[in-house]
Amino acid sequence: MISRRNFLKTTAAGIAGITLPLAAFEIVDPRKLMAQEAKNPAKVRWVFLVDTYKCVGCGLCVKACKQENEIPYDANVTRTWVERYVLTKDGEISADTPKGARDGFTNSKIDLGQGKFKDIKKEDIDKAYFVPKLCNQCDNPPCVQVCPVGATYQTEDGVVLVDRKWCIGCGYCIMGCPYGVRFFHPVHHTAEKCNFCYHRISKGMKTACVDACPFGARLIGNIKDHNDPVTKIIMNERVGVLKEEYGTKPQVFYVGLSREVK
Amino acid sequence: MVHGELWTIKELFVYPNEYIYWSIQIVMYPFMTGLVAGAFVLSSLYHVFGIKQLKDMARFALVFSFALLFVAPIPIMLHLQFPFRGLEIFMTPHFTSAIAAFGVVFFTYGAIVASELWFLYRKHFVEVSLKLREKQDKTLSEWFQYLIFCSLTLGVYDISEEALHRDEKAIKILAGIGIPVACFLHGYAGFIFGSVKANALWMTPLMPVIFIMSAVVSGIALCMLTYIVTMEFKKFIASRRNEARGAFRSKEEIIGVEINVIRMTARYLVFFLVAAISLELLDLIFRTYTAVKSWDVLRSVIYERDFYDIFIMQYGIGNLIPLILFLIPGLTIRRSVLAVLLVIFGVFMMRWNVVIGGQAFSLSFAGYMHYHLPIIPHDWETFKEGLFGALSIFIMPFVLFWVIAKIFPVFPETEQTS
Amino acid sequence: MKNHVLRPLFVVMGIVALILLARLVVVPKDFGAHERGYMYGWHRKSDEQVWKDFKVKYQGKEYCQGCHTDKYDAINKTPHKIIQCENCHGPAVDHPSDPPKLEIDRSRAQCLRCHYPLPYPTSGRSKIRGIDPDKHNPDVECSNCHNPHNPMGGLK
C-alpha cells in the first residue's frame, strides 16, 4: 500500500532524477561568462550612422544591397530600404516606399498602395525628406530573444545573424522586430535580415550600401574606437534613434531625424 | 513569390517587408490548444472537485482531450517553413523564447493526460489482454490487439480492489496537477502573443488569462457538442434495439441522463464565458482610456476595419446570443447544440481577431494590411495556408477520437455490451 | 509489484532520457551560449564563419582603377565622381575572369534616380538639377546625348 505522502515523495524524487541529467547538459555558466566578459571586453561594436539631410532617395543603396546579398531582385522584400516623408501645409503626413525604393523615387506622387497615388502640389509642401532604413543591430535584440532554437544570434561585435541551416522558419523573430526589417528569404525560406554586410565589414571593407551611396548619407563605424569619425559624430553631435520606446537600444543613429518618421 | 505576399494586400504606408506572416494555421494553433486545455479542465472538475453529475462527461472529456493533444502541434508544424527542423525545439531550446517552452510544457501536459488515462483504463487493459491471452486460435487482428493491450498494461496485471483504489488516488492527484499545467499550456500560448512588444494589439499582460478563459469555454463547448452527438447516436441505437429485444437501457433513460449532464456542464460554460468576455472588455476599455501612441491605428482597426469581425461575429453571434440561449430557463438539447456551436465559432473568431487582427495594421501605425484566406488550393502552400488546411486540422481530432475510443471505451455501456 | 503507480513515470523518464541522448547526437559540438550569453548568443559558432565567407560582389572603384585608369581619372574631374563605377556598370565580382563583361545600366530610370526633380526643401534632392522625363526627349537614352563620365562637358 502506498500512501499519498509516499507517492508524492517518490514523484518528487523522480522529478529530481530527471532534472539531474538535465543539469549535466548545462546550457550556460553565468560566472564563466562574466569572467570572460571582464577579461577581454569586445574591441569592436559596429554601429551605423544615417544623415537624412544628405539622402536624396536615389535608392542605389537598395539596388546594391539586393545584389550584394543575393536577395532576388524582383522579390518584394529587401534588407534595406528608403522611405519618403512629405509634410503638407494642412499638417498631413504622407509617406511611401515604392518597392523599398529599389528604383529610387522617380515620381512626385505618393504611393498609397493598391494602385492608388496621391498628388501633392509643390507649393503645399512644408518639409519633405528621405529616411534610409536597415537593421538596427539592437543591443537588446527582441528578434534574438524570441528565437526558439538559437538560429538567430548576436556576434561579439554586435551584429545579429541568422543561421540558415538551423532556422525552422516559425516567423517569431519577424513578429518580434518593431522595425519590420526581417522577412523570409524567397529562395532559402529562412528568416533573413540586414547584417551590415558581415562578410564585408569583417574583411575591413564598408557595407555595400555605404559604398554605393554617392552622397555619404550612410556611414558605418566602430563605436568602441574613439578616433572613428562615425563615433565622433555620434558622441559629439545630436543624433536620434528609431522607436526608442521599445527598449531595444537600436544602434543605427540618425542625423536630422524628425518626429514624423515612423 | 515572397511568403505572405499571396494573401496580403497592403494599403497606405506599410514597411516593404511586412506581410501577414502568421496566417490561418496560427489561428488554428491556439484554437486547438484551447480545446485541449478546456476539455482537460472539464474532466478534472469531476476528478478533483468530485462534481458527480459530470462523471459521464469527465471520462469522455479526458479521452477527447487526449485526441486533441496530438492535433494541437500540427498547425504550428504546418506553419513552419521547415517542419522537420521543428524538433530542434527539443534539441537546442532557447528558453527566452515563449515558443521554446512549448516542447517542455506540451510534453509535461501530454505525460499527465496519458498517465491519468492509463490509471483510468488500466483495469480495462488488463481485462482485455487476459481475455485475449486465454483465447485459443487468435486471428491476426486479435494478435495485434493482444500485443497493443499487453504493452498498454506496462506489465502490471494487479487489478485487486486495493490496487484499483490506488489508481483512483493517482488519478485524483494527476488531475489536480493537470489543472494548473493545462492552464499553463494555454496561458503560455497567450504569452506567445502577449509578450510580442512589437505588436501593439497583442502586447497586454491580460493575454494569457484571456486565452485560458476562452480555452476553457471552447473546450467545454466542444465536449458538450461531441457528447450530445454521441448520445443521440446511442438513442438511435437504443430505439432500434428496443424493437428487436429488451434493451438494457431505454431511450427515455438516456435522454434523462443526457439533459442533466448538459445542464450541469452549461452552467460551468456560462461562468467561464462571462469571465472571458469581462476580461476582453476590460482590455478594450483600458486601451481606450489610456490611448497610448498606437491607439489611433488600433481604434481604426477595432472600430472600423474589423468592426464586423469583432463586434458582430465574435461578441454578438459568438458570445451574446449563446449567453442568452443558455440563460433562458428550461434548457433543451436542441437549444444547447445551437448555443454550443455558436460558442465554438465565437472562440474561433476571437483567435482570428487576435492573430489576423494583430497584423491588420503596419508597424508604422500609418498603414494597413488585409488578409485574404486562400480558398481553392493549387499547390501545397495554398492548401496548408488556406481554408482546406484549416478544415483538415479541425476534423482531425474527431477522426483521432474515433480511433482512440477503440482502445479507451468512452462510455461504461460499451464496456458492458462488448 | 507493489509500486505499479510509478510505471507511467518510468515511461516518461525513458522518453526524457531518449531526448537527452538524441541531443548528444544531433546538436553540433560548437552549439552553445557564446559571447553574448544565453539570451543573445545561443548559437552554432561555425555559422559566423559561414557569413564571413559570403561572396563579396561590389569591389569598389579602386578595384576598377588598375585597368580602367583613364575612365577613373576622367570621371574624378566631374561632379559624377561621387558615383561608384559599379552603380551603373554592375557588381564587378571577379571581373575580368568572372564575369568577363559587365552589363551596363544605361536606362533613363537609372539617371532619374537623382535627376527626377523633387523640390523637397529639407533634403539634398532639391539641390540636384532635374528634368521632366515626359517632356525631355522621352524614349531616348540619356547617354545618347550626355556623357555620364563627363556630364558637364556639353552634349555629344
Précis, in short:
Chain A has helices at 4-24, 30-39, 60-68, 142-145, 172-176, 198-201, 208-212, 229-236; strands spanning 46-51, 81-88, 93-96, 110-113, 116-118, 125-133, 152-154, 160-162, 183-184, 191-192, 218-222, 252-255. By secondary structure, chain A is α+β, with helices and mostly antiparallel strands.
Spell out the key features of this protein.
heterotrimer; A: 262 residues; alpha+beta; 25% helix; globular; B: 418 residues; mainly alpha; 2 strands
Structural class of chain C: mainly alpha
- Summed up, the domain count of chain C is 2
Share of helix of chain C, binned: 25-40%
- Distance between the first and last residues' Cα of chain B: 56 Å
- What coarse outline of chain B follows from CA principal-axis ratios? globular
How is the topology of this model organized?
The complex is a heterotrimer of chains A (262), B (418) and C (156).
Chain A: H1 4-24, H2 30-39, E1 46-51, H3 60-68, E2 81-88, E3 93-96, E4 110-113, E5 116-118, E6 125-133, H4 142-145, E7 152-154, E8 160-162, H5 172-176, E9 183-184, E10 191-192, H6 198-201, H7 208-212, E11 218-222, H8 229-236, E12 252-255
Parallel strand pairs in A: 1-12
Antiparallel strand pairs in A: 1-11, 2-3, 2-6, 4-5, 7-8, 9-10
Chain B: E1 8-12, H1 24-49, H2 55-71, H3 73-79, H4 88-91, H5 101-134, H6 140-152, H7 161-194, H8 207-244, H9 251-290, H10 295-305, H11 307-327, H12 333-355, E2 367-371, H13 380-384, H14 387-407, H15 412-417
Antiparallel strand pairs in B: 1-2
Helix pairs in contact in B: 1-2, 1-3, 1-7, 1-8, 1-12, 1-14, 2-5, 2-8, 2-14, 5-6, 5-7, 7-8, 8-9, 8-12, 9-11, 10-11, 11-12
Chain C: H1 7-26, E1 31-33, H2 37-41, E2 42-44, H3 46-52, H4 61-65, H5 69-75, H6 85-89, H7 108-115
What this model shows, in words?
The complex is a heterotrimer of chains A (262), B (418) and C (156). Helix content of chain A is 25%, strand content 20%. Chain A contains 8 helices and 12 strands. Chain A is globular and about 65 Å long. Chain A starts with a helix and ends in a 7-residue tail after the last strand. The model of chain A is unreliable at 19-25 (pLDDT under 50). Chain B has 15 helices and 2 strands. Chain B has helices spanning 24-49, 55-71, 73-79, 88-91, 101-134, 140-152, 161-194, 207-244, 251-290, 295-305, 307-327, 333-355, 380-384, 387-407, 412-417; strands at 8-12, 367-371. In chain B, strands 1-2 form a two-stranded antiparallel ribbon. Chain B is globular, with a radius of gyration of 23 Å. Chain C starts with 6 loop residues before the first helix and ends in a 41-residue tail after the last helix. Chains in contact: A-B, A-C, B-C. At the A-C interface, helix 1, helix 2, helix 3, strand 6 and strand 7 of A face helix 1, strand 1, helix 2, strand 2 and helix 3 of C.
